[in-house]
Design a protein that fits this description.
This protein is of the alpha/beta class. The chain has helices at residues 4-11, 16-28, 31-34, 52-59, 63-66, 79-87, 91-100, 113-127, 132-143, 179-194, 226-242, 260-268; strands at 156-163, 203-210, 215-223, 249-257, 271-275. It contains twelve helices and five strands.
Length: 276
């Protein structure tokens, strides 16, 4: 994390007092300081629950010396765009503003043209990925889903996680075994121990995302349908059997087309739908 991440974390819940304090911190510090690495071992979310004096210590500044940096006249700055993005949960987009503009400058829409071009180019690249599951996975990571308010470096993404071990009477060799790992070397060992056909009964979660607080089981489909709902319900149950965890297990479906009746039914039953 960078020092400017403190300001973004303060802005997440949209509280006016916290955003005002975030602006104060940004104004007090120099541009090069704010892009320095933050000496902090906690998570991004934990940055939101500190005392004001602790923020000054964390940023390594003496507010009495820095008060001279505060402008008397209020002006919107480029960093206000980043704070607005952070308050709507778009942390990675907010970081792009902080990294790719002079965010201390007065607000100027021309400063954001390079970022907009980059976003459009990336969206076109993803759209042109032929394989559906590769394309949906690229969308997930580009949009920083699920939980866009958590920085991507605090998440772990997995493809095709094997489930059904306990139901088949097999002990999982380690947590979050993927199809690639199973096919590369595990299948022969498991077949010798449990019989050739037994490992073939395993099912595969399309995507799994682990955050500091939750584990997400995600099914990918071209269009939201009953099959996707059944799969994510089944796979989340099997996952909870195979890989006991203290973290809550959340369910989601990522797709390119939505059936709004099914979407409402999903959300009413704890399944988040992410569409692109």
């Amino acid at each position: 994390m960078k020092k400017y991440d403190v300001a973004l974390a303060l802005a997440i819940d949209g509280d006016e007092n916290r955003i005002a304090f975030a602006r104060l911190l940004l104004d007090m510090m120099e541009l090069n300081e704010l892009r320095e690495e933050l000496k902090y071992d906690g998570s991004f979310n934990s940055l939101r629950n500190m005392e004001e004096s602790d923020y000054f210590k964390l940023m390594e500044i003496d507010p009495r010396e820095r008060i001279k940096n505060i402008e008397e006249e209020f002006k919107l700055k480029n960093y206000d765009v980043a704070l607005a993005l952070a308050s709507s949960g778009k942390i990675e987009d907010a970081r792009k503003v902080m990294e790719k503009t002079n965010f201390k400058n007065d607000l100027n829409s021309l400063d954001f043209i390079p970022i907009e071009r980059e976003v459009m180019k990336k969206a076109e690249e993803i759209k042109n990925i032929n394989d559906l599951h590769n394309r949906l996975f690229a969308y997930l990571k580009e949009k920083n889903y699920p939980c866009p308010d958590i920085p991507q470096e605090e998440k772990s993404y997995y493809r095709e996680v094997a489930v059904g071990w306990i139901s088949l009477g097999i002990v999982p060799p380690f947590a979050h075994v993927t199809r690639e790992e199973l096919n590369s070397w595990l299948r022969a060992d498991l077949s010798r121990e449990y019989g050739f056909m037994r490992p073939s009964g395993l099912k595969y979660i399309d995507y799994m995302c682990e955050t500091p607080e939750e584990i997400w089981i995600i099914e990918g489909k071209s269009k939201l349908d009953f099959k996707a709902i059944g799969q994510v319900l089944t796979y989340s149950f099997l996952f909870s059997q195979d890989y006991p965890t203290q973290k809550p297990i959340r369910k989601a479906i990522v797709c390119e087309e939505i059936d709004h009746l099914l979407k409402n039914a999903c959300e009413g039953n704890g399944i988040e739908v992410m569409a692109f």
